[in-house]
Amino acid sequence: MYALTNKSILSMAIAMAVSTSAYANDNEIEEITVTAKPTSYANNVIEPAMLDQQTTVSSVLSVIDNLPGISINEGDAFGGDDWSTTITMRGFSIDSNQQQLGMTVDGIPNGGSNYGGGAKANRYLDTENLATVEVGQGTSDIRSASLEALGGTFNFVSKAPNLDSSTTFAYTSGSHDATRFYVKHETGTLFDNTQAYVSYSQTDTSRWIGSGSNGGKDNQHAELKFVTTLADLTITGRLSYDDVSETNYNSVSLAQFEQTPEWDQLTWNWTGVPHYDQMFAEGWGTLRENTLAYLKFEYALSPTSLITVSPYYHKNSGRGDWIPPYLTTPVDENGNPTTEGGTNAGSYGFVDSAGNALAPNEGCTASLSWPWESGPGLNPACYDDTAIPVMSYRHTHYKKDRIGVTANYQATFGMHDIEAGFWYEQSDRDESRDWHKVINASIYHHFDSTPYWTQYKNTFETDTLKWYAQDSMALGDFTLNVGVKKYLVDIEKYDHYQNATTAKVNSDSDVLFSGGILYQLNNSTELFTSYSENFAAIKDGVLERDSSDLSAIEAETAENIDLGVRYQNNALNLTATAYSIEFDNRITFIAPGSDTGGIDYTIGTNGSYLNVGGIESQGLELSASYMLSPQWSVYSSYTNNDSEYKGDAPGFEAGEKVIDSVDDLFVLSTDYFSGDFRFGLSAKYTGERGEVDGYTVVDLNAGYATDINAGPFKAIDVAFVVYNVTDKSYLAGGTGNGSTYFIGAPRTAALTLSATF
Known about the structure:
The protein is mostly beta strands. It is built from 6 helices and 39 strands. The two termini are 49 Å apart.
């Protein structure tokens, strides 16, 4: 075990790295036509047409939206804002408040999907470099390396390099000032045993809401991958780099949406009144850099046994920006002014010419009503004309370094297919928050680069070890799967201002059992059932809140049962799955002052986390794909889900519907290919969520692709995509609190021209 925990050894290995396993060459991708793997639990992959349904400007997350049970909602028209991205599946969610679904890239853990230091698959993978996505609904693959896999997993698989050399250039232009440049060079075969590619993209969009100083997305992304074959050893390397600046979207209440359905309450004109300008869109931003590098060594020990070892390294850094309409008064534990640590003794919105804080004029009670009641302290009418408005620019800095390794052994012994392995990772996450003075709040939010207060500075160290073993036994027409896994997770918080470890928690799981039966009824039909115990470790964010009683918090667990049938012939694929889930020990954050209006920008380490009972979910998932002809296919999926809280906790009373869960999802799409031309139409219905109406969004795609082999040209491709063809107005993803939602994007189009040389 020492070799696994020695950072220097891992670092030397990872310094050589640039990728993970090959999934399929380009000419193999089109062969992925099934919607489910022959496993004993619900497991789907995207169909090739689902890639054509998305423009390359869009986030790679959007390609799985039509699979059964899944709802992907992104506040930005092209998915250019992680803050407003929500994912739900079977009553489990990824949003700004909860991370209950696991995510990996080529089997490598993503490092969490939360906003503060997390990184979803869109930070690691361009759409052009995606081969497929493997989805485990409810029951995850036993080897999945995730601490968030309560309700299933997503594994995004990158393309393998081509055997032939080529260079592809692509340009995209679309709605909301969208532009994208993409270039990819395939080396072809080098040294008789190696294939590689390198790609780069630059993507720019504007927020679809508003105009003028409204922000948007500026994203640079690069990838490199190689595959080398040496006798019984295959080495795959992959490196991805992503640098993005995103202006956020704001969530709105149902009443706000009904009043102004095309406005998220953020503004795009600077007024010089801080109470209004706290809603200035360009002040709500996310900046992130992500670098992920890994190697994958696959060694055939024998014709029936394979060992795979994948060391990896991930570095994440960035910050989140907000513009509070006041300055704070930080003091230490003795009440003396301080610039580091301590607490806020009070806030003020106006100063005199010497910079001294002012109080509102005596007897003035006037208040600004938007975006919420300001009170007299932030209302210019309560001050003399000589009073100077002030603001802060609050930066929350995030940094994460992960180093780890996954290892897997597979072997066949008679009727037994044995699989065993482990995942080890050490993660250090730094988080600090500093406050900067806006130089002149009446003009703009330009700020002093030296902070006047660094509120906190903490480091969270997480050590993770997972081991697993599984036996798949072939018993005639029956296949029996039996597996066990266990997580060993230790988390510590180091407070740099106290120079001490101030909190630690052990988040080990029990030994978790999984089992399933697959029965091959005939050549075209199989029946399956499975049971699995899933686990999500306590997040390091729980340790941020000093008032949390760590001794009383238990890790989240879930028990999942699947019962289903799959049918497949030359033209038709059908899958039906019934499921039942028991989710226990749900962890929720209770913020101080959460019952008051507005935003408490000074919340740093206040508030607490606690277990609030659990969730019961039952449902049915159906999917079907049918080839009407060699050129024409139809795909459909339907999900009925019923998720209710159990236990009695304030805001989460037993029997109430789970916040943001959708009872009904229905997808119908068709794709037609005629020679070099293609056309597709897709419609998705999302049912009601509490008082929020259901909605249907229709998307269209068309394209032309051909090999020309004329002069320097090898092939060209023209792709046209229109989202929300009917320009439907709707509320999309929720924020997990049941009261605010992100507005769905309007009709959006993009055209991509590609040429391969």
